[in-house]
Structure formats: structure tokens, C-alpha cells
Amino acid sequence: MANVMVVGSGIIGLSTALALSRHKDVCVAIVSKHMPGDYDIEFASPWAGANYWPVGKPGSSLQKFEKATWPELERICRDIPEAGVHFQESKIYGRTRDAGSATGQWFEELCKEDAWFKDVAPNFRVLPRSELPPDCDTGTAFTSVCINTAVYLPWILGQCVKNGVTVKRGVLSHISEASAYHPAGRADVIVNCTGLLASKLRGVMDTNVYPGRGQIVLVRNEAGKMYTTSGTEDGSDEATYIMQRAVGGGTILGGCLQHGSWESQPDPNLAQRIMQRAIDLCPHLAPQTGKVSELSIIRHGVGLRPMRKGGPRVEKEKIGDQWVVHNYGHAGYGYQSGWGSAWEAERLALEILGHSAKARL
Fold first, then answer.
1. In contact, 317 and 328? CB cutoff 8 Å
2. Which residues are annotated binding-site positions for D-dopa?
3. Which of 92, 179, 240, 282 could cysteine-pair with 187, CB 3.0–4.6 Å?
4. Which residue spans within 95-208 are E strands per DSSP?
5. Given this model, what pLDDT does residue 141 score?
6. C-alpha to C-alpha distance for 41 and 196, rounded to whole angstroms
7. pLDDT tens digits along 21-54
8. What pLDDT shows up at residue 356?
9. 3-state secondary structure of 19
10. Looking only at Cα atoms, what is the longest distance across the chain?
11. Is the dihedral of CA 165, 168, 169, 171 positive or negative?
């Protein structure tokens, strides 16, 4: 029996643990500071929309992970209703003036009318000018999924437990300390899915990792579809996106992408701009007055995306005498790239253990 210890219980950690737990001769355990159900500034996964809006550049590892992830999200949505995922139409609007801005760069691939994922996401079409907002130059629509994170994360955790995964809370100061949390007393492989904390964890201390602050408002109002634009008039790091979560999860209104900010408290002025922009883009949110006062607010939230210069890090490394597989740095794309990334981390871990695994990418 081979022993694997996964560090982190966000979307990347849980997906990787589940992938590994399907091997009956691998004993998987999870240790994490935060768990599904927690709301903490360090724990990005609960704050996400979350959906499938590909942004990886062609040929990048992120693009490969996103492409590999869609069929699994589609399968879960179709066959496992209790996972908290539903199909929803997306409308993506682009403005040429946003090129080079923080959000313009963020959504550069997403907003292309000849996007690489046009043959991946169902029902992809280019919108005629008559369907575009007045200030937008391009537009596409396709069928995507939106995920209720409060349901989806516990569902994956439950699947892990069903497969015999042991789950513990713990705070590590060095990545090597994870090994001792395994029920066997030592892990043959540690899988590092620590997200933003990879920048602070000794033994890793990845200086390429930094926070990408996002702010959202969760409301009860229903949008019916998902929407986004490539930028706003309110600042180069502010964005407009609307995502209606599955099974009563409310509608996420966002947002911003503030590189390097660790600020945990919502900015009330930004919140007002977010809500008004969302209503302007989707009047269905406030059909009677078109005003923010018509929104029924569940909560304001701030999440720190685990950004990484160079994109996600999915590779193996020997730290001291301990093999580690890194799987972190997915920025705001963990849900839409998580399964592809998990399968690559699974392949690397099995490679270290001397197992054979069919590549899924």
C-alpha cells in the first residue's frame, strides 16, 4: 500500500485527493488549515462564482487543464444533481478599449469570437451587433455550468471519505510536516495544493505566488444567465460578472482583480459600483426600479485568488528526502481547470510510486 498526503482542501486539493483515492492500492489522506464550510480570506474556493469561462492561452498548461476539465464538469452536471452544478447560458461581451487593462488581460481569451473553446463548450455562437450592449464591440454566447460551491465542495469531500480518505485539520510551518499527519505515520508522496499559502509555506516559499483580490456581492435575485464584460469605466482592475449558482445558491455579482492586495474587508463603495454595474448589464436583476435597493443581499465577500506568475505549477520535486507533487497557482480558474490539473498531479504521484496511470490530458 502506497501512502499519499494531500495538503489543502480547496477545489484543487479535494479534486486531486479524489482522483488518487480511486486507486485501491493507494491510501490517501488530507490535511488542511481550512475545510469546506469555512469562510476565510486565505481560503479562496468558497468565494468563487464558480463556473466554466476558459481563459488559458492556446498551448499553455492552463488551457490543457481547462480543455480536459469540461467533459467531467458536464458529466457531473448531467448525472449527479446532488453535486450542485447546473447548465447555464453565458454571454460574454468584449470592448476593444479594455486591451491591456488588468481585466482585459484576464478575459483576453474568453472574449475572442474565435476562441479555442468554441469546439469544447456547447452551443458556441458569435452574437450579432443587435444583441450587444451599446458600449461593447464583440460578443459570444455558449452553454456553461455554474457551481454552488457550498454544495459542490462538501460533495467532493464526501466522495473522498466514501473512498476511504482520512481528513484532518492541521497548520503546517514546513511542507515536510504533512507526512506525519498520514495515518501510516509517513507519506511516500506529499501533494501540495496549498494555493496562496504556497507563498509562505517553508520548503516551498514560491515568490511567484501572490494574491489577486476579488470582491463579490451574493444576492437572492435571479439573473437567469451568466454575463461578463471585458472591463468597466470604473477602473482598469474592476470587472462586471454575474453568475447564478445552482440549487438555490444565489447569484454572485462581481467584481475586481486587484493584484497584490491582501485587504480582507469589503470596500462599500466598490460594492455599490459592482451592484449597479450588474443591474445595468442585466436589468432582470432589478426589473421594477433598476436600483441597487431592489437587490436582496445575502452577503458581501472578499476572496484572494492564488495568482502565480507563469501559471499553475503542477510538477514533482524532491524536498530533502521527501517527494512532493505541487499543484497550485490556479488563480481564479480552479473550478474550470481542477479536474485536468488533478489528473496531471495524479499521474505524477503514481509515477513516483512506480504505478502506471493512463494520461487523461
1. no
2. 241, 332
3. 179
4. 125-126, 138-147, 166-169, 189-192
5. 98
6. 10
7. 999 999 999 999 999 999 999 999 999 999 999 9
8. 52
9. helix
10. 65
11. negative
Contact call for residues 153 and 299 (beta carbons, < 8 A): no
Strand pairing partners for 141?
A: 91, 125
All cell numbers assigned to 172: 503546517
Q: Find the Cα–Cα–Cα–Cα dihedral 238, 242, 246, 247, rounded to 10°.
A: 100
CA-nearest of 337, 334, 6 to 163 is 6
- Give the residue ranges of the annotated binding site: 194, 241, 332
- Residue type at position 328: Y
pLDDT at position 355, please?
Answer: 72
Through-space distance between the first and last CA atoms of the chain, rounded to whole angstroms: 26
Q: Which residues define the annotated binding site for FAD?
A: 194
Average pLDDT for residues 191-208, to the nearest whole number?
98
Look at residues 252, 249, 254 and name the one whose alpha carbon lies nearest to residue 214: 254
d(CA 350, CA 155): 25
| Predicted confidence (pLDDT) per residue in 105-141, tens digit | 999 999 999 999 999 999 999 999 999 999 999 999 9
Candidate from 67-76, 127-136, 142-151, 349-358 with smallest mean pLDDT = 349-358
Q: Which DSSP string corresponds to 193-248?
A: --GGGGGTSBTT--TTEEEEEEEEEEES---SSEEEES--SS-TTEEEEEEE-STT
